[in-house]
């Protein structure tokens, strides 16, 4: 528990917008489910963000998608299995790199946390295209 309380720093900043894409690439917006205490919500979000940072720098990624093509329905995806392999022995160090920018609590929904990786360069988020089922860019 001490690791999580002292492992990252907290600062106060103004939120750019409600859109997570307006944050730089070293900022993570995370939702923690409702737990018995606010401390537990914060702890779970911090662990999840640290794990996400490890997955981002994963040693190996494995993604499998099972598809089926039917002449009447076209291409259908119905099963996905993804795995990331990373060294989690550095989790405490990763947690210490996090700076909490903002926390919003809701008793029924949990907590929304905005955290920044202080060791990662602050860059604009990469634009990601979205495609329809027909493969057209939207």
Write the layout of secondary structure elements.
Layout: H1 2-6, E1 9-10, E2 27-32, H2 38-56, E3 60-70, E4 74-85, H3 91-96, E5 98-106, E6 110-117
Parallel strand pairs: 1-5
Antiparallel strand pairs: 2-6, 3-4, 5-6
Explained architecture:
With 138 residues, this protein is α+β, with helices and mostly antiparallel strands. The chain has a domain at 2-13 and 24-56 and 87-117. 22% of the residues lie in helices and 35% in strands. It has helices at 2-6, 38-56, 91-96, and strands at residues 9-10, 27-32, 60-70, 74-85, 98-106, 110-117. The chain has a four-stranded mixed β-sheet with strand order 1-5-6-2. Strand 3 (60-70) and strand 4 (74-85) form a beta hairpin. Residues 1-7 and 9-17 have low confidence and may be disordered.
Output the keywords.
single chain; 138 residues; alpha+beta; two-stranded antiparallel ribbon; 3 helices; 6 strands
């Amino acid at each position: 528990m001490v690791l999580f309380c002292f492992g990252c720093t907290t600062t106060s900043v103004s939120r750019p917008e409600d859109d997570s894409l307006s944050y730089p690439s070293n900022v993570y917006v995370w939702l923690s489910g409702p737990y018995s205490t606010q401390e537990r919500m914060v702890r779970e979000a911090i662990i999840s963000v640290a794990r996400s940072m490890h997955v981002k720098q994963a040693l190996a990624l494995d993604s499998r998608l099972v598809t089926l093509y039917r002449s009447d329905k076209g291409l259908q995806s119905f099963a996905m299995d993804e795995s990331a392999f990373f060294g989690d022995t550095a989790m405490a160090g990763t947690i210490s790199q996090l700076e909490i920018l903002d926390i919003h609590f809701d008793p029924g929904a949990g907590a929304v946390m905005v955290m920044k990786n202080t060791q990662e360069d602050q860059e604009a988020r990469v634009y990601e295209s979205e495609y329809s089922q027909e493969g057209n860019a939207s």
